[in-house]
Every structure is written in structure tokens, then in C-alpha cells.
Recover the amino acids of this structure.
């Protein structure tokens, strides 16, 4: 392993170890909010723009994942239809609300919004929309990043019901390239995925105690086809991506 790869692994591992402690309380709060929604047959939506949208894809139809999750996948706010224009969209007011309306979000639902910078228009508008209709908002964001660049603007952390501070530095990347002034090795996706999967595992554990854990199996596992088919049939009416 080279010095650079070692530095990246060391940095990421140390951050995860620290977050295991600092986020224990907020993660428990998030799990409780999601558990309450699940017991009421509500849905948990996951939304992010740019690279943050990968958290929504991570939990969608996922082996070992909860079937009542719904990814909010809007092409113009992701990367595959044009990375540059997606950066414009995520900073433009008024675009997210009509996008979210197609998902039929309801009072008592939950939306997890991932935004590392925490100041762009799209994630904040998504939070406002959810709260307007009576849904709970969980934010995965960097307080240090949003505090450094807010300049008086609203932050996602200011409008969420539960804030999961990923502890990342402004700019995301964590490994210095000596003599260049550049940094490489972004970690927000790895950290965000770890946070959300840990919370969902806790929720599934609690639901399993009453025999109500709706968890997908890997398609290659015995019995997966039957189990997954039942879950898809149940949750497809409120998940346009199934």
C-alpha cells in the first residue's frame, strides 16, 4: 500500500470510529423516527443531488435493505444527464417541489436528505416541502462545511428534525497532495452510506422482534424470489421505481 492509499484508508477509518461515538445519540433519534413511521405503514424517502443521490440508490431494492424505502431519483438533479447542468439545478429555487409531488409523500412519512455542503436550494426546498405536508426530515450533512460557506443563507441543518453531522471538512476531500495545494480522496459517500445502513440495520432489528421486518434478500439466496416478490407487490404502489 502506498503512502497516499494508506493515508486515505487511515483517515476514513478514523472518521468512522469517531462518528460511531459522536453520532450515537442522533442516530438513535433517527432510528426512532423511522421506526415510528414503519410501524404506521409509512414510507422513508431518500433524496440527494449530485453525488449525494447515491445514498438514495444505495437503499433502493437492496439486499439486506428495508423494503419501505423510496429513492427520490430525478435525472436532472443527478449526474448522468449532465453533471455541469445538475450543479445549476441543485442551486435553483422552485425545481424540487414539483419533482417531489409525483412521489405522493404523506403526513407521517420520513425523508432522509443528504447534502454535504448543506446550503444548496434543492435539499432545503425538499426539507421545506416535507415539513409542509407533515413528514419528518432527517439530514445527513457537514456542519463544518455549511457553516463555512453559508454567508447568511439557510442551511439544511437549520430545517431538519434530526441532524446527522458527518463531521467532514469543507470540500469533502481529505488527503493532501504534497506541494500542489490540492486534496483528493472524498469521503462523504462512504461515510453517508455507512451512517444510513447502520440506522436501517437498527430499525430492522427492532422490527424483527415483532416479526415485521420487511427486508429484501439477495436475488441469489434461497427463497429470495418469493420473499422479494411479496415485498415488491406490497410496496410498489407508493414506490415508482420498483
Amino acid at each position: 500500500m502506498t503512502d497516499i492509499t494508506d493515508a486515505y484508508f487511515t483517515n476514513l477509518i478514523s472518521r468512522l470510529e469517531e462518528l460511531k461515538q459522536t453520532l450515537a445519540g442522533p442516530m438513535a433519534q433517527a432510528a426512532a423516527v423511522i421506526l415510528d413511521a414503519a410501524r404506521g405503514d409509512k414510507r422513508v424517502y431518500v433524496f440527494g443531488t449530485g453525488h449525494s443521490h447515491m445514498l438514495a440508490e444505495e437503499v433502493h431494492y437492496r439486499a439486506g435493505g428495508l423494503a419501505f424505502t423510496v429513492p427520490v431519483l430525478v435525472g436532472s438533479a443527478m449526474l448522468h444527464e449532465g453533471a455541469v447542468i445538475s450543479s445549476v439545478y441543485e442551486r435553483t429555487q422552485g425545481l424540487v417541489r414539483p419533482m417531489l409531488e409525483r412521489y405522493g409523500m404523506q403526513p407521517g412519512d420520513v425523508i432522509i436528505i443528504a447534502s454535504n455542503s448543506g446550503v444548496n436550494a434543492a435539499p432545503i426546498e425538499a426539507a421545506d416541502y416535507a415539513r409542509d405536508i407533515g413528514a419528518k426530515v432527517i439530514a445527513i450533512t457537514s456542519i463544518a462545511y455549511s457553516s463555512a460557506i453559508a454567508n447568511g443563507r439557510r442551511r439544511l441543518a437549520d430545517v431538519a428534525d434530526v441532524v446527522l453531522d458527518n463531521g467532514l471538512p469543507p470540500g469533502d476531500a481529505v488527503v493532501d497532495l504534497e506541494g500542489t495545494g490540492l486534496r483528493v480522496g472524498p469521503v462523504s459517500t462512504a461515510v453517508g452510506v455507512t451512517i444510513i445502513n447502520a440506522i436501517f440495520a437498527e430499525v430492522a432489528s427492532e422490527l424483527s422482534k415483532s416479526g415485521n421486518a420487511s427486508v429484501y434478500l439477495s436475488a441469489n439466496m434461497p427463497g429470495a424470489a418469493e420473499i422479494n416478490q411479496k415485498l415488491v407487490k406490497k410496496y410498489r404502489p407508493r414506490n415508482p421505481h420498483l
In short: The chain has a mean pLDDT of 91. Strands lie at 44-48, 69-71, 110-115, 136-141, 162-165, 173-177, 182-186.
